Each structure stands twice: as C-alpha cells, then as structure tokens.
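Worked example 3 (structure in, sequence out).
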C-alpha cells in the first residue's frame, strides 16, 4: 500500500508543477537557473516582479498541498498514531519525492521535453547536470530528516 501512496504522492507533485506552468514554460520561469531568467527579462518576455509573485504563489500552494497530502496519507489513510511509525513513513515518502523530483522531473521531463525550451534561450543550459542533481538531492536528503520529524509531530497531534 505504501508503494501506491508514494506513486500517488509523486503524481500529485507532477500535477502541481504542470498546473503551475500550464501550457507555457514561462509560467514556471522561477524553476530555471538565473542565466535563463536574465535572458528572458532582457528579451522582454516577462519581468522579475511577475516571476517573484508567481514563485511565491506557487510555493505557498505547493507546500500546503503537499504537506497536507503527506499528513492525510499517514494519519488518516494509514491510521498511524505513533511518532516513530509516522516519522519513518514521512521520511520514506519525502525521500522518494526528493529523488523523483531530481531524476524524473529535472533530468527526464525537463531534460527531454521541448516544452521546457524557452524561445531565445536555447543556447543557455537549463537542465541540471547529474552532478548538480546528486549534490542537491543529497543535501535535501538531510533536510527531509527534519521535515519528516515535523510531519510526524503534526500527525500524532491530530485526532
């Protein structure tokens, strides 16, 4: 059952990104490295303020939805009442999401889809290298140890 839940959690992650960008990669410009953003600003396709607002809006909704889904899965779907069990499930789901993001989203979807290429920026690298993915995911692996503890604490406080 936990495997199904992890798959559904990753599907939710993907849907959140797809809804945020819609049919225009510019809607997700905040996902891109600074050289790409700078070029897009120079081309007049959007401005820094618009991107900042979109990023804040997305991140607030994204964090709220993903955190809520995690807590609902552990507390209400799995009926977990104890911290250790909640912590281990949260950690597993968050780590799978972390590596899914780096490998499936960043390297496969973004790296192999023409959708993410913004006209006028084709010559600027925007896909993370494997070294960048591994470094970022390793750091986030450590971060999720704390994130899982927060999620587990919330889970055990709920009725």
């Amino acid at each position: 059952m936990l495997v199904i839940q992890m798959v559904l959690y990753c599907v939710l992650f993907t849907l959140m990104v797809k809804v945020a960008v819609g049919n225009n990669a510019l809607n997700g410009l905040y996902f891109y490295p600074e050289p790409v953003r700078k070029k897009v600003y120079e081309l007049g396709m959007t401005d820094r303020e618009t991107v900042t607002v979109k990023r804040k809006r997305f991140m607030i909704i994204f964090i709220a939805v993903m955190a809520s889904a995690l807590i609902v899965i552990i507390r209400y779907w799995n009926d977990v009442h104890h911290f250790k069990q909640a912590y281990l499930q949260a950690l597993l789901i968050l780590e799978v999401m972390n590596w899914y993001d780096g490998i499936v989203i960043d390297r496969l979807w973004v790296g192999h889809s023409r959708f993410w290429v913004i006209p006028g920026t084709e010559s600027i690298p925007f896909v993370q290298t494997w070294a960048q993915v591994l470094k970022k995911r390793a750091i986030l692996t450590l971060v999720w140890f704390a994130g899982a503890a927060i999620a587990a604490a919330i889970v055990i406080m709920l009725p």
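Notes: The mean pLDDT is 97. The CA atoms of residues 91 and 148 lie 5 Å apart.
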